[in-house]
């Protein structure tokens, strides 16, 4: 009893010479679950190779290369596209005996070699076109992401337009978000690579909705919903900024990062506000010589208050600390001693340990401050004014920079 014919076999037997390749193309497309138009003229010159040994011309391979790009634009995976071409090839080879009468062994071997060469050339061109299109799409996507992020963080674009542009990135601008900024200690750090790492980490852990990772001005920008903070704390016993710093450090232990976190706010303008807070927190952290790995904007509110009235701040620094410039070593050593002394809770021994000097040197410097300014750092009643003046000096970058005569913009 003969074997039972399937629908494809019946179609092939009933098809004429012109319809044979169409049947193969439809079967291959159904098998690979890919659009049939991605085959183009591939089966034609593949059949020519089997029948006459002809190799595809440059224009034919260029057409296949364009089809690879079309597949990428249509969202067809590269593996799926290659499967389509391989499936079409083996189906064509399987049906060749039904079109061509019997051949001797040498002829069959020559036909097989010709077909394999064509498959190699065509698949290579196909993958090359797919990869080129994917690279171009990634560049365009990255460009669109940067432009969207710039408008979002600037906060001066059309809000309704921002809401529409946010949808492809999975952002709901009606929710509350906060912005994290991660700045590397060294300019040699590859921030773009760090962004790719963080994006994978965040998406793997929390999904791709309402999060955005990008780069801006040499910094890593991480946008997360306010609710993510509760999830992170429950999983990692850390806030989102601490979570980000831990993952960045785990990726490259030799690289040092400082992460600043703005507070969460609702809406598109809330994102811009959170970004400004995070950026200001980084700037204040540098000016105040903070060595903390994570800087929270909420913890620096007192410094923002000090900086709001710059005229008063300049007057305070000038009145209390300008006399320190009369010291033989200048104002900086005494200012550093005061800064550390206040940071340790006015403990001279701890101040000496942190500054790597003797307690006697610390007490000598504190006495020098008292003699020059008339304010005793050890006196609680006079300590507050000196402490505020020291913070003001760091905010104004004094004494490295001259005190401004006009308010800064």
Describe this protein's structure:
This protein is an alpha+beta fold. The chain folds into 3 domains: 7-136; 182-303, no CATH class; 309-395, PucR C-terminal helix-turn-helix domain (Arc Repressor Mutant, subunit A). The protein is 63% helix and 8% strand. It is built from 17 helices and 6 strands. It has helices at 7-14, 20-32, 42-52, 58-73, 78-99, 105-154, 159-166, 191-206, 228-236, 240-251, 267-287, 301-308, 310-321, 331-343, 348-355, 359-373, 380-395, and strands at residues 176-184, 212-216, 219-225, 257-261, 265-266, 294-296. Strands 1, 2, 3, 4, 5 and 6 form a 6-stranded mixed sheet that branches. β2 and β3 form a beta hairpin. Mean pLDDT is 82; it is low at 1-17.
Number of domains: 3
Rg over CA atoms, rounded to whole Å, is: 35 Å
Largest sheet: 6 strands, mixed
Helix content: 55-70%
Given the C-alpha coordinates, what overall shape results? elongated
Distance between the termini: 95 Å
Number of helices: 17
Tally of strands: 6
Mean pLDDT: 82
**Based on helices, strands and strand pairing, what is the structural class?**
alpha+beta
How much β-strand is present in the residues? 5-15%
Order of helices and strands: HHHHHHHEHEEHHEEHEHHHHHH
List unreliable stretches of 5+ residues. 1-17
List the helices and strands and how they pair.
Blueprint: H1 7-14, H2 20-32, H3 42-52, H4 58-73, H5 78-99, H6 105-154, H7 159-166, E1 176-184, H8 191-206, E2 212-216, E3 219-225, H9 228-236, H10 240-251, E4 257-261, E5 265-266, H11 267-287, E6 294-296, H12 301-308, H13 310-321, H14 331-343, H15 348-355, H16 359-373, H17 380-395
Parallel strand pairs: 4-6
Antiparallel strand pairs: 1-3, 1-4, 1-5, 2-3
Helix pairs in contact: 2-5, 3-5, 3-6, 4-6, 5-6, 8-10, 13-17, 14-15, 14-17, 15-16
């Amino acid at each position: 009893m003969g074997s039972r014919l399937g629908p494809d076999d019946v179609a092939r037997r009933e098809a004429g010479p012109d319809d044979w390749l169409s049947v193969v193309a439809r079967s291959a497309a159904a098998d690979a679950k890919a659009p049939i138009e991605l085959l183009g003229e591939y089966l034609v010159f593949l059949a020519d190779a089997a029948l006459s040994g002809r190799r595809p011309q440059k224009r034919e391979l260029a057409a296949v290369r364009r089809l690879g790009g079309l597949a990428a634009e249509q969202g067809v995976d590269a593996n799926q596209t290659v499967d389509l071409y391989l499936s079409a090839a083996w189906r064509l080879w399987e049906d060749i005996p039904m079109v061509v009468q019997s051949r001797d062994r040498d002829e069959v071997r020559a036909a097989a070699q010709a077909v394999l060469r064509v498959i190699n050339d065509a698949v290579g061109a196909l993958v090359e076109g797919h990869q080129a299109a994917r690279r171009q799409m990634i560049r365009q996507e990255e460009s669109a992401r940067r432009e969207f992020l710039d408008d979002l963080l600037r906060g001066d674009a059309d809000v309704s337009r921002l809401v529409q542009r946010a949808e492809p990135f999975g952002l709901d601008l009606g929710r509350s978000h906060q912005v994290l900024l991660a700045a590397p200690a060294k300019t040699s750090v590859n921030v773009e690579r760090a962004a790719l790492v963080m994006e994978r980490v965040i998406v793997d852990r929390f999904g791709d909705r309402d999060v955005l990772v990008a780069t801006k001005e040499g910094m890593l920008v991480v946008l997360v919903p306010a609710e993510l903070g509760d999830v992170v704390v429950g999983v990692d016993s850390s806030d989102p900024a601490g979570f980000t710093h831990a993952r960045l450090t785990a990726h490259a232990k030799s690289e040092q990062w400082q992460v600043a976190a703005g507070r969460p706010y609702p809406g598109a303008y809330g994102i811009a506000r959170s970004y400004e807070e995070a950026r200001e927190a980084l700037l204040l952290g540098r000016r105040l010589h903070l060595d903390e790995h994570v800087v929270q904007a909420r913890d620096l509110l007192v410094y923002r208050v000090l900086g709001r009235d710059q005229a008063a701040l300049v007057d305070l620094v000038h009145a209390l600390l300008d006399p320190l410039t009369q010291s033989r070593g200048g104002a900086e050593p005494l200012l550093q001693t005061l800064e550390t002394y206040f940071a340790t809770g006015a403990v001279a021994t701890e101040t000496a340990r942190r500054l790597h000097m003797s307690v006697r040197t610390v007490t000598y410097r504190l006495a020098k401050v008292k003699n020059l300014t008339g304010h005793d750092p050890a006196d609680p009643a006079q300590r507050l004014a000196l402490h505020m003046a020291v913070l003001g000096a760091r905010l104004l970058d004094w004494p490295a920079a001259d005190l401004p005569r006009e308010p800064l913009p």
